[in-house]
């Protein structure tokens, strides 16, 4: 018959840990959306954007100083996310909640590909490209249906104005120096403290306080699986490092 063993042979102890886990936390980063064609955060500076440092643009100061440049960058990223489709990693994660006693999905990503893959409860630690709001009064803003006119080469785009107070509309993401949505981060911490397995997928583990969650889980006795094609700061802390792409590894892991 056809050999239907997963392409990737995982350590038996890892497979057992996943099978026996009561509560799994999965922490996803931009690497999970990479195979959907959404540039990872540190690769989001391709083409004309490459002359900018993402950490420079993803700040309230940058928006204050040049709202049209920052809005143009986010509209380009939103357009890329709208054009993208969930990949096998997102689909495998959506399927995990069906056969695990408890899965808490925590993402650093600002796209909605987990939701579009069928994950129904997604904790967004860094907000969303799809929930813009007024920078002055906080009122949420509805995007027009049609695709953003892609600022092909990173053209400046004037942000829309709030219909209530005429303030500038800003992206619904958490910028560097801004605090994370309290409820989301509290829920993520709770889950990390109570899980018995945390799977960190597709993140460079550089941005805090999100990057602290795997350490918090370990400090509370959880085991830690990292899935990433590259080495990260988490390597020395993971119980298992699975080197590979999320879209290859996750479907094999949950097969
Ligand atoms: C806060 C939204 C204070 C915007 C983002 C010095 C030391 C420590 C901390 C700090 C410091 N100086 C400043 C800080 C704090 C700062 C921080 O951590 N800075 C870092 C850079 C040092 N943190 C903050 O400012 C946070 N806020 O601390 O507030 C405060 C406290 C109390 C009260 C008030 C204020 C806010 C952080 C949130 C910033 N916003 N995103 C936007 O997206 O534009 S973070 C940004 O980076 C991304 O959104 C993403 O969420 C995050 C992490 O990126 P990754 O997801 O890891 O993506 P990356 O590209 O880095 O890596 C991709 C990985 O995937 C790679 O490892 C790659 O190998 C892998 N990969 C590639 N392909 C695949 C793959 N993996 C699997 N499969 C594949 N196919
Ligand atoms: Zn307003």
Describe this structure in words.
The chain has 255 residues and is an alpha/beta fold. Helices cover 32% and strands 15% of the residues. It contains ten helices and eight strands. The protein has helices at residues 12-20, 31-34, 54-57, 60-65, 67-83, 88-96, 113-117, 182-194, 213-219, 246-253; strands at residues 24-28, 103-107, 122-124, 127-134, 169-173, 197-201, 223-227, 240-242. It has a six-stranded parallel sheet, with helices on both faces. Strands 4-5 form a two-stranded antiparallel ribbon. Helix 6 packs parallel to helix 10 (246-253) and helix 8 (182-194) runs parallel beside helix 9 (213-219). The longest helix has 17 residues, at 67-83. The protein is elongated, with a radius of gyration of 19 Å. Bound molecules: ligand BV8 and zinc ion. The site of zinc ion has 8 residues, from loops. Keywords: Cytoplasm, Metal-binding, NAD, Transferase, Zinc.
Task: Write a short abstract of this structure.
With 255 residues, the protein is an alpha/beta fold. It contains ten helices and eight strands.
What structural keywords apply?
6-stranded parallel β-sheet; binds zinc ion; 255 residues; binds ligand BV8; alpha/beta
Strand proportion, as a percent range, falls in: 15-25%
List SSEs in N-to-C order: HEHHHHHEHEEEHEHEEH
Spatial strand arrangement across the major sheet? 3-2-1-6-7-8
- The percent range for helix content is 25-40%
Helix count from the secondary structure assignment: 10
- The computed structural class is alpha/beta
């Amino acid at each position: 018959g056809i050999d239907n063993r997963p392409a990737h042979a995982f350590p038996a102890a890892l497979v057992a840990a996943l099978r026996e886990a009561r509560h799994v936390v999965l922490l996803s980063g931009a690497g999970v959306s990479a195979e959907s064609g959404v540039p990872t955060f540190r690769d989001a500076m391709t083409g004309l954007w490459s002359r900018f440092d993402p950490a420079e643009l993803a700040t309230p100061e940058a928006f204050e100083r040049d709202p049209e440049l920052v809005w143009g960058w986010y509209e380009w990223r939103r357009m890329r996310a709208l054009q993208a489709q969930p990949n096998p990693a997102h689909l495998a994660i959506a399927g995990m909640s069906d056969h695990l006693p408890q899965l808490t999905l925590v993402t650093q990503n600002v796209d909605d590909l987990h939701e579009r893959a069928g994950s129904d409860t997604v904790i967004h630690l860094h907000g969303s490209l799809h929930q813009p709001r007024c920078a002055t009064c906080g009122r949420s803003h509805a995007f027009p249906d049609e695709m953003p006119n892609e600022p092909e080469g990173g053209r400046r785009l004037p942000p829309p104005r709030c219909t209530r107070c005429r303030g500038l509309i800003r992206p619904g993401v958490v910028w560097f120096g801004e605090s994370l949505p309290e409820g989301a981060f509290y829920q993520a911490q709770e889950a990390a403290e109570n899980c018995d397995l945390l799977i960190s997928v597709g993140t460079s583990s550089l941005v805090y306080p999100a990057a602290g969650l795997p350490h918090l889980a370990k400090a509370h006795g959880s085991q830690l699986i990292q899935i990433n094609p590259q080495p990260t700061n988490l390597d020395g802390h993971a119980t298992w490092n699975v080197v590979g792409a999320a879209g290859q590894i996750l479907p094999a892991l949950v097969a």
